[in-house]
C-alpha cells in the first residue's frame, strides 16, 4: 500500500454512497450550483429543477439540504485526494514529493472558477453545527497528515513540525488564491516550502 493510499484510509472519510440515477442527477446538479453560486444562495427547488426531478425525491434520497451539502463536499474531497495522489505518486520517493503537493494544489485551483470549494463552504457554514464542518475539517487533517507522512518518508528532521509549517503555507496560499484572487501566491508558497524542506534535510 502506498503512502497516499494509506492516508486515505487514516482520514476515515466515508465513501460516497451508491446512488440511484435520480440521486446522481441531484448530487451533480447540487454540486455545480453550490460551487458556482454558494450554499445559502441555492435552494432545493432550484436543485430539483436542474436535476429534472422533485423536492420529494431530494428529501427521500438525502434527508435534507444540509446532508446534500456534506455529500457534495465529501465527493469533492475524494476528487481532490485522487488529484493529489496522482501528482505525488508520479514523483520518485523523497523530498520532491512534499513539493509535488503544492504542484497538485496549483493545477487543481487553476482549473476551478471560484477557488477552493472547502474555503468557500466554510465561509458560509463556519461556526455552526452544519454537517459539512466535519467534512471540511477531515480534509484539512488529511492534508496535514499527508505532509507528515511524506516528511517521515523523506527522512526529514522533526517531521511533525515540518508538516505543520508546510500545511500552514498550503492552507494560507489556498485562502489567498481563493479570496484574494491571486494565483501567484501558489508559486510563492512552493518556494517557501522548498526552503522549509531544505532546512530540515
UniProtKB/TrEMBL annotation:
Keyword line: DNA-binding, Transcription, Transcription regulation
Stretches assigned to the HTH tetR-type domain: 20-80
Ranges annotated as DNA-binding: 43-62
The keyword Ribonucleoprotein belongs to this UniProt entry's keyword annotation: no
Pfam families associated with the record: TetR_C_13 (PF16925), TetR_N (PF00440)
Top-rank taxon, per record: Bacteria
Protein name as it appears in the record: TetR/AcrR family transcriptional regulator
Species annotation: Pseudonocardia benzenivorans
Amino acid at each position: 500500500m502506498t503512502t497516499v493510499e494509506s492516508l486515505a484510509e487514516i482520514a476515515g472519510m466515508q465513501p460516497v454512497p451508491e446512488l440511484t440515477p435520480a440521486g446522481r442527477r441531484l448530487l451533480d446538479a447540487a454540486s455545480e450550483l453550490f460551487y458556482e453560486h454558494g450554499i445559502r444562495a441555492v435552494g432545493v427547488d432550484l436543485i430539483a429543477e436542474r436535476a429534472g426531478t422533485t423536492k420529494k425525491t431530494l428529501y427521500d434520497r438525502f434527508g435534507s439540504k444540509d446532508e446534500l451539502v456534506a455529500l457534495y463536499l465529501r465527493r469533492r474531497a475524494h476528487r481532490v485526494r485522487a488529484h493529489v495522489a496522482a501528482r505525488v505518486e508520479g514523483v520518485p520517493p523523497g523530498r520532491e514529493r512534499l513539493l509535488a503537493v503544492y504542484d497538485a494544489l496549483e493545477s487543481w485551483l487553476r482549473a476551478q472558477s471560484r477557488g477552493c470549494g472547502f474555503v468557500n463552504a466554510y465561509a458560509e457554514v463556519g461556526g455552526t453545527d452544519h454537517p459539512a464542518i466535519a467534512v471540511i475539517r477531515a480534509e484539512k487533517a488529511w492534508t496535514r497528515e499527508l505532509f507528515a507522512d511524506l516528511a517521515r518518508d523523506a527522512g526529514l528532521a522533526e517531521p511533525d513540525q515540518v508538516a505543520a509549517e508546510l500545511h500552514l503555507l498550503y492552507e494560507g496560499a489556498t485562502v489567498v488564491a481563493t479570496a484574494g484572487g491571486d494565483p501567484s501566491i501558489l508559486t510563492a508558497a512552493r518556494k517557501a516550502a522548498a526552503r522549509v524542506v531544505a532546512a530540515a534535510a
